[in-house]
Recover the amino acids of this structure.
């Protein structure tokens, strides 16, 4: 064969290879950041005499996620926080709420403003530094406000706190286990100023991002688009116990983006028991029902009526839970709680001492595989502090079960943090994977 023919064949092969469609990468991961309030708490730091360095643990947490994004050779395509990014609120109250009878949660010592300024000057900048690590990648991410992220915490005057009876609701380790708002008082949270100052729609995190497609209440609620596994996904971040105005905003976003598989993240949605209900002493619907809806209302009035919503993620309640409900179209909605804030083995001074909650660096990794006839999500729980998955630690049950799910067996507890979800109606609802141009 002469050289001209060889060159001609090589060129044909090259052109043929270039004309082939690129393969779809069917596998990707969604990372869920549980409540980080105890890691960034200004009292959980070495300079305050705490046994471990919470700030370092938090930044390590965020660096792990950044290092494992698709843009850096990993599998993570989307990251969502489920709220309680930091620990402490302010102690101010506006005249309108004062007239309604609400009072500051904390006593008012003469130096309270200086004290709270010190907290803000540590916790919020530290939290921001963590998310700056994420923003240095090209990953799409969402942050929602938890109750600790609002500007102010009050007691409602209709539910006075009774300190003399608090012991009735405590276990032997001093943890609050009872639920009587006439003893604990009813907490009310309000104001978006603190949260939006860091994570608002005009923040450096989101201001120029085409994937950040909408917001409400300044960014306390937000919507993102991300592309992964051959699908374009819509994600909502909702404020805690979102009200009617939020649902109407979200419905407008869905109407403008029909048919996209949709995930919602919010702070308070299901309990460790799996019930869609609020804590008795943090129930915004009882304090201000015109501005808030409970989880069951959000389910019945919004989630169940929009067939493209297939998943809900939340935090707030310590532990983990998983439930599946069928929406009004007969399709599955997968709902997961992930909150490890109370874990404190890393800071445990002695085996017989109660744990000092700091989270031990645990997070949820949801590994999607859309290339199968029935797509799956492998739910994994991983500690950036111990550098292990939950099923790799022989001590896992003894360390955490009694704290989070004391009624579970050992195997049930292990299975709650390491299991597979079969998306058996996903392709019926959303079709086969297709190549999509990345959202910048």
């Amino acid at each position: 064969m002469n050289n001209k023919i060889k060159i001609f064949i090589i060129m044909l092969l090259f052109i043929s290879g270039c004309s082939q469609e690129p393969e779809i990468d069917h596998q990707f991961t969604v990372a869920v950041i549980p409540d980080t309030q105890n890691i960034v708490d200004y009292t959980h730091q070495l300079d305050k005499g705490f046994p471990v360095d919470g700030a370092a643990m938090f930044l390590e947490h965020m660096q792990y996620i950044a290092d494992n994004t698709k843009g850096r050779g990993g599998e993570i395509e989307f990251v969502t926080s489920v709220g309680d990014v930091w620990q402490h609120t302010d102690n101010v109250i506006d005249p309108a709420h004062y007239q309604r009878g609400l009072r500051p949660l904390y006593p008012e010592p003469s130096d309270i403003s200086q004290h709270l300024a010190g907290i803000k000057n540590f916790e919020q900048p530290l939290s921001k530094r963590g998310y700056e690590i994420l923003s240095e990648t090209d990953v799409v991410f969402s942050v929602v406000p938890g109750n600790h992220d609002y500007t102010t915490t009050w007691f409602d005057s209709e539910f006075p706190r009774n300190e003399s009876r608090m012991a009735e609701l405590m276990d032997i380790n001093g943890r609050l286990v009872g639920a009587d708002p006439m003893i604990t008082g009813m907490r009310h949270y309000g104001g978006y100023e603190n949260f939006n100052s860091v994570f608002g729609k005009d923040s450096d995190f989101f201001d120029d991002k085409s994937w950040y497609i909408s917001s409400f209440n300044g960014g306390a609620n937000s919507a993102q688009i991300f592309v992964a596994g051959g699908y374009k996904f819509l994600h909502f971040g909702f404020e805690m116990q979102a009200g009617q105005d939020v649902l109407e905003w979200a419905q407008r976003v869905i109407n403008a983006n029909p048919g996209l598989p949709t995930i919602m993240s919010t702070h308070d949605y299901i309990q460790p028991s799996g019930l869609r209900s609020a804590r008795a002493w943090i129930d915004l619907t009882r304090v201000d029902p015109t501005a808030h809806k409970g989880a069951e209302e959000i389910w019945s009035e919004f989630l169940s009526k929009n067939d493209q919503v297939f998943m809900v993620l939340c935090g707030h309640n310590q532990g983990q839970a998983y439930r599946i409900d069928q929406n009004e179209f007969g399709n599955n909605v997968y709902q997961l709680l992930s909150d490890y804030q109370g874990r404190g083995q890393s800071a445990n001074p002695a085996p017989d001492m109660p744990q000092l909650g700091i989270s031990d660096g645990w997070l949820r990794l949801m590994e999607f595989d859309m290339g199968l006839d029935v797509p799956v999500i492998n739910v994994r729980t991983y500690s950036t502090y111990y550098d292990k998955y939950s099923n790799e630690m022989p001590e896992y049950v003894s360390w955490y079960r009694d704290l989070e799910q004391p009624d579970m067996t050992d195997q049930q507890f292990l299975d709650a943090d390491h299991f597979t979800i079969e998306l058996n109606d996903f392709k019926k609802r959303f079709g086969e994977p297709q190549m999509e141009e990345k959202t910048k």
Observations:
- Residues 166 and 331 are 44 Å apart (CA to CA).
- Confidence is low (pLDDT under 50) at residues 12-19.
- The chain has one domain: 23-430.
